[in-house]
Amino acid sequence: MHISTFNQPPQFNTDIKSRNLSQSKFLSLPAEIRFRIYSYSLVSISPITVWSARIPVASRFGFAPRALVWDRKAMARDLRRLSIGLLRCSTSIAADAAHIFYRGNKFCFFGEHEYYPVITWLDKIGMENRECLRNLQISVDQPPRAWQLPDGSCLRPQYYSTINGYANRHPQLPAPALPCKEGEVDIINPAIETIISLLAGYSSARKVTLYLQLTCCDMPGVTLIEQEDMTQFSMDLPNLVEKWRTAYFSNKVCGSLEVIWIAESSSEAYIQKRDLIEDVGWEILQEEDVEIIQKRYRGPHEPELELAHWVTRSLLRRKPLIGPLMAADPDPYTDWYRKPRPSE
Hints:
The protein is α/β, with parallel strands linked by helices and 344 residues long. Helices cover 30% and strands 23% of the residues. The protein is built from ten helices and eleven strands. It has helices at 10-23, 31-42, 57-60, 72-80, 91-104, 116-132, 191-199, 236-248, 267-272, 274-279, and strands at 48-54, 69-70, 106-111, 135-140, 145-148, 154-155, 183-186, 207-214, 256-266, 282-296, 305-318. The strands form two sheets. It has an eight-stranded mixed beta sheet. It has a three-stranded antiparallel beta sheet with strand order 6-5-7, with no helix packed on it. The longest helix has 17 residues, at 116-132. The two termini are 42 Å apart. 24% of the residues are buried. The model is unreliable at 3-12 and 161-165 (pLDDT under 50).
């Protein structure tokens, strides 16, 4: 999926290009026909999985070491049906093929990733190919939590040791006033801003759609199902994403970015709290009932149980921000037994 570029002397590249144009029957075809061939060969009818990894349920429950398991079959399956070899042909063919490949496909990052594989991929494909991107989908889990103290600092529990060096609340989320309310708060990964900045381009006609698929059962700002040990996903992440979208794409020269959030939730709970979803700042674009397969953990030596059930899948857009952006209050369902000790 990444195009290798070999640094050859300018005269060498010019000679090869001239020879290809004079000898290649394919390059002698009209551009409209060539691009139609590229589309048939390189545009997939289904999204292309760039990254798919998960933490086994046994690892989540402490029965096995914490490790990622990559779904390499899914990552290779989507490319197997395409003529990826066109991306490694002559300079002229590779450039035209890459334009169609990155422009015509939706690229997806599923499972556990902490956003860094997305940044690595966007950096590797280069600026020219990023300019061609139109559809990107990333799975989003509830942010890690930390315990906010009255002075605004945060204590990070040991079980969030995977957080890469950020323990306090995002600097663009100022607290309303001191002393702060004490309790659990979301810690936003700064890598998300890097992704949005990399998507900003230099073409005014360019429109990119970023799909953020929620992997948790709740929506930001709303607790759909109240149960024991529940937590609330705050609006901090959607608010920051909307702020970054506006900041990096405010100049029309950069094109436009639309951020669509995908949520799947219990149909009954969704209907009951639909008005509240809109009240906290969401615009509901589309909703439909779908059947999904959910895996349930049964024990360290038992296979996972697969259960089919119906959920409501909704497409959401964060409404425009009004007024200064402030940090959300701590989780109203904060469990004081989860407060870490200072030594942690």
